[in-house]
Amino acid sequence: MATTSTVYVISGASRGVGFAITSLLAQRKDVLIFAGTRDTAKSVQLNELAQKNDKVIQVKLEKVDFLIANAGIADVNKPVLETPTTSFLNQFTVNALGPLVLFQHFYPLLAKSSAPRFFVTSSRAGSTSDVPQSKFTLSAYGVSKAAANHLVAHIAREHGEKDGLVAAVVHPGFVGTDMAKAAMEAVGLTLDAQIPGIQMLTPDESAAALVKIYDEAKRETHGGRFFSYDGSQIPW
After folding, report:
1. At a CB cut-off of 8 Å and minimum separation 6, what does 184 contact?
2. Of all residues in the chain, what percent carry a pLDDT higher than 90?
3. Residues 6+ apart with CB under 8 A from 232
4. Stated pTM of the model
5. Which terminus of the chain has fewer CB atoms gathered within 10 Å of its CB, N or C?
6. Cα 110 to chain centroid, rounded
7. For residue 39, with 0-12 CB atoms within 10 Å meaning exposed, 13-18 middle and 19 or more buried, which class applies?
8. How many CA atoms are closer than 13 Å to the CA of 173, on its beta-carbon side?
9. Is 1 within 8 Å of 58 (Cβ atoms)?
10. Using one digit for the tens of pLDDT, what is the confidence trace for 37-71?
11. Which Pfam families does the UniProt entry name for this protein (predicted)?
12. Which residues contact 185 (CB under 8 A, 6 or more apart)?
């Protein structure tokens, strides 16, 4: 399908931040959004959005302008000694290899864009510098996100100048989702607990902040770097 519209591909679009990003972008003019989900039958909100908005569709595309790897899991929130190797493998497969496979498959379409952009939704848990100050026990999750961060750094180096690609990692903030609830419960807290130094965001608040970064990102300022939802840079 030939199109002059700006084309977004978003994985993990059925709930939480991914759905909020999809909903926000769907309000724009002249866009096409390919929204990915693991189970279309259970993606009630996404299906309803697609029925109401013809910008959220499945099409055969000739280019992709924005590729957003948002899908992720955190299946065990325990210390290293208590986390089975299967959990490390599961989270690495989804959180690190998932963005890799997405990029490899969509690269030919990204390369046809005049301004290609690739963003991976990561987490501060993937910052090695942040581990000593972490308030949560997220060993397997953190390792998988650190791997995803490193992957994006390589993609930026290999394709930034070559293809004009902006490749960056974004932290969505601490968002009130099922994943955040599980992380809180793992340390004996409820989702509504106040944690010093951490601001709880709604999915809509996080999505608005991330889309602002997507819009403003440039290769010179964002390529191969790690940013928080508020625009500040996070150390690796």
Report:
1. 190, 191, 193
2. 60
3. none
4. 0.85
5. N
6. 17
7. exposed
8. 22
9. no
10. 777 778 888 888 888 888 886 445 678 999 999 98
11. adh_short_C2
12. none
